[in-house]
Write a structure and sequence with these properties.
Elements (H helix, E strand, L loop, with lengths): L2 H20 L1 H9 L4 H16 L4 H14 L3 E5 L2 E2 L8 H5 L8 E2 L6 E4 L2
Parallel strand pairs: 1-4
Antiparallel strand pairs: 1-2, 3-4
Bound molecules: zinc ion.
């Protein structure tokens, strides 16, 4: 897989983890279990910043814009559709022999897309 795409997916995973941990209910539950979600969030934010600094400026800006607008900036292709907006992708995408070899975006919503098969 394309390294840049891999990083964007990791960035997305970190954002999901951070927002889950920062979520009040989950945060309270974890504290009840004797865990320290706040320090985990701090740690994850640090990892996120480090990762983000290695991502191409252009992609990082796109990511932040998409995440701010949609809540998620990176989505898998499911049943030949962008799982973000459910638009059927043009056939040119399926003809490609090199899936995930480059950073692709959905022509409809602009989210970063990747193949999981
Ligand atoms: Zn889309």
């Amino acid at each position: 897989m394309n390294k840049e795409l891999e990083k964007l997916i990791s960035l997305h995973d970190l954002d999901v983890m951070i927002s889950d941990l920062a979520n009040n209910d989950i945060n309270k539950q974890e504290k009840k279990l004797g865990l320290s979600p706040d320090s985990a969030v701090k740690e994850l934010r640090k990892m996120r910043a480090e990762l983000a600094s290695t991502i191409d400026r252009k992609h990082r800006d796109m990511y932040d814009r998409l995440a701010g607008h949609y809540g998620n900036a990176v989505v898998p292709v499911v049943n030949l559709r962008c799982s973000g907006c459910l638009t059927q992708l043009p056939t040119a995408f399926f003809a490609s022999q090199n899936r995930n070899d480059q950073v692709e975006t959905c022509p409809s919503c602009g989210r970063f897309i990747y193949w999981c098969d």
